[in-house]
């Protein structure tokens, strides 16, 4: 891909780490609403998690994504930026040419496709750890009362044990459970992530400015995140349910079966929290990315 620029990967890692820290509590709520049962509304889910697990319950499974999702985000931003640069160089002969809509779409689709290879296992482990206190047996049997010794029993002792258990039970393919749904979520999702951000940044930034201000980045990133996560909710629900499935038994046969059961039984869950969570989390990711990128490039100019 021509001269691969690593600064985008490093800046993406910084932005990803910042986004995980800010967005993980609402991500836990989203996962519980989508893959669990008995929570009702978003507000009731927040109260239930806090009442049963205290504030620590919102940060379940955070250590693993703090490291891995930062790397995942690094790959997404790195692939997007370098693909866009490659297209500009071969189409216009200048990597600094303003990208056209189709250029952004192709770079976004490339980032979405590559991201599933890393993001599939990461999301799977994160969701399994987040669902530790959700009784899969109780939820599936629709029992009204908690079954003693089942609801609070955890299947995994941590990320490493989770990965080991999945590999032992289902092999390497088990780590990619729900990846087809993730692909259907991320390819169009990243188009609605990077394209609105790029155009909004250009629109908000005054003429003559070489780079957008932190405020412009924050607003554009937040709006892009709300749009992307809001529209990605249907397939995000399917992905979350497929990945949470299979701890004690398998409820879904595949993507189509999960869509069918979800549509008939529950409808959409987590739409509100996905859109709300998308704004601050994505705003933080883009702001962290742009600030880190500026520091890296300024440092490179100072110390060539």
What is the rounded Rg? 20 Å
User: What percent of the residues sit in helical stretches (DSSP H or I)?
Assistant: over 70%
Low-pLDDT segments: 134-152
The number of helices is 10
Overall 3D shape: globular
Order of helices and strands: HHHHHHHHHH
What fraction of residues sit in β-strands? under 5%
The number of E-state strands comes to 0
Structural class: mainly alpha
The pLDDT mean sits at 81
Q: Describe the sheet with the most strands.
A: none
How would you classify the quaternary structure?
Answer: single chain
Distance between the termini: 23 Å
Question: Could you describe the 3D structure shown?
Answer:
α1 packs across α2, α1 runs antiparallel to α10 and α3 packs antiparallel against α4. By secondary structure, the protein is an all-alpha fold. The chain is globular, with a radius of gyration of 20 Å. The longest helix has 32 residues. The two termini are 23 Å apart.
Q: What attributes characterize this protein structure?
A:
mainly alpha; 10 helices
Short description:
The protein is an all-alpha fold and 304 residues long. Helix content is 72%, strand content 0%.
Walk me through the topology.
Layout: H1 7-35, H2 42-53, H3 63-92, H4 101-130, H5 136-141, H6 159-170, H7 179-204, H8 214-244, H9 255-265, H10 271-302
Helix pairs in contact: 1-2, 1-3, 1-10, 3-4, 4-7, 7-8, 8-9, 8-10
């Amino acid at each position: 891909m021509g001269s691969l620029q690593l600064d985008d990967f490093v800046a993406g890692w910084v932005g990803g780490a910042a986004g995980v820290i800010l967005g993980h509590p609402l991500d836990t709520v989203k996962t519980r609403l989508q893959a669990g049962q008995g929570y009702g509304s978003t507000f009731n889910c927040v109260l239930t998690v806090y009442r049963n697990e205290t504030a620590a319950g919102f940060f379940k499974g955070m250590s693993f994504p703090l490291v891995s999702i930062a790397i995942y985000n690094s790959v997404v931003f790195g692939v997007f930026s370098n693909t866009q640069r490659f297209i500009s160089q071969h189409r216009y002969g200048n990597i600094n040419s303003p990208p056209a809509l189709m250029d952004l779409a192709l770079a976004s689709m490339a980032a979405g496709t590559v991201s599933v290879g890393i993001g599939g296992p990461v999301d799977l482990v994160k969701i399994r750890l987040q669902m530790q206190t959700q009784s899969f047996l109780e939820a599936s049997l629709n029992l009204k009362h908690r079954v003693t010794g089942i609801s609070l029993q955890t299947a995994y002792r941590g990320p490493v044990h989770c990965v080991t258990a999945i590999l032992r039970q289902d092999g390497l393919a088990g780590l990619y459970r729900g990846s087809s749904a993730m692909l259907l979520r991320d390819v169009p999702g990243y188009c609605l992530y990077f394209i609105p951000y790029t155009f909004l940044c250009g629109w908000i930034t005054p003429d003559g400015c070489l780079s957008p201000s932190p405020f412009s980045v924050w607003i554009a990133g937040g709006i892009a995140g709300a749009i992307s996560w809001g529209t990605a909710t249907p397939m995000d629900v399917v992905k979350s349910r497929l990945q949470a499935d299979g701890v004690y038994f398998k409820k879904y046969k595949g993507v189509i079966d999960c869509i069918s059961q979800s549509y008939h039984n529950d409808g959409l869950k987590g739409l509100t929290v996905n859109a709300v969570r998308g704004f601050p989390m994505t705003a933080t990711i883009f702001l962290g990315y742009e600030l880190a990128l500026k520091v890296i490039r300024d440092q490179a100019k100072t110390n060539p």
